[in-house]
Amino acid sequence: MDDEKVLDQAVAWRASGKNVAIATVIQTWGSSPRPVGSQLVVSDDGTFVGSVSGGCIEGAVVHEALEAIKTRAPKILEFGVTNQQAWAVGLACGGKINVRVEPLD
Amino acid sequence: MKATTLETLQRDRAAKRAVALLSDLDSNEERLVYPDSPTSLATVPPAVAEAIKIAAIADRSGVVKIAGKRFFINVYNPPLRMIVVGAVHIAQPLARMALLAGYEVIIVDPRRSFATAVRFPDVTVLSDWPDDALATLAPDPRTAIVTLTHDPKIDDPALNLALKSSAFYIGALGSRKTHAARLKRMELAGFTATETARIRGPVGLSIGARSPAEIAISVLAQVTETLRQPATDAGGARSDPAADAA
Question: Do B108 and B218 belong together in one domain?
Answer without folding.
Answer: yes
